[in-house]
Amino acid sequence: MSVTLEDARRVIAAAEAKADEVGQPMNIAVVDAGGNLVAHIRQDGAWIGSVDISISKAWTSRAFDISTKDLGDNSQPGKQFFGIHTTNGGRVAIFAGGIPLSRDGVVVGAVGVSGGSGEQDHAVAEAGAAGF
């Protein structure tokens, strides 16, 4: 079981609608069960520097089956995952915007969003996940 291109398109459409609603152009990435990129869009005006960040957030969320917001909260000094962002070649993103995608209780992919504040990124990713 994994995210299909059709699934990714639905996730992206839902996330784009939320990004438009909050008025912040975003980069939106969807990865499959193996963490491989299925689809990505960069809305007009979204930062190019956020392309890789959105993909890393999606990958991180799938790699650890946790939202990047929750991972980030647990990655602060004194917390159980402190330093995790230095692993996996620095690919681990520990700020809000990545959410796992589940089907029948099994994580089959993830969405990653970057381009706004952490709160905006998380809200847009949540909307994308809801569209799954």
Describe the structure in your own words:
This protein is of the alpha+beta class. The chain has a single domain, classed as Haem-degrading domain (Beta-Lactamase). Helices cover 40% and strands 20% of the residues. The protein contains four helices and four strands, in the order H-E-E-H-H-E-E-H. The chain has helices spanning 5-22, 49-64, 68-73, 118-130, and strands at residues 27-32, 37-42, 98-103, 106-114. Strand 1 (27-32) and strand 2 form a beta hairpin. Helix 1 (5-22) crosses helix 4. The longest helix has 18 residues, at 5-22. The mean pLDDT is 97. Pfam families: HbpS-like (PF03928). This is Heme-binding protein. InterPro entries: GlcG_carb_metab_protein, PduO/GlcC-like, PduO/GlcC-like_sf.
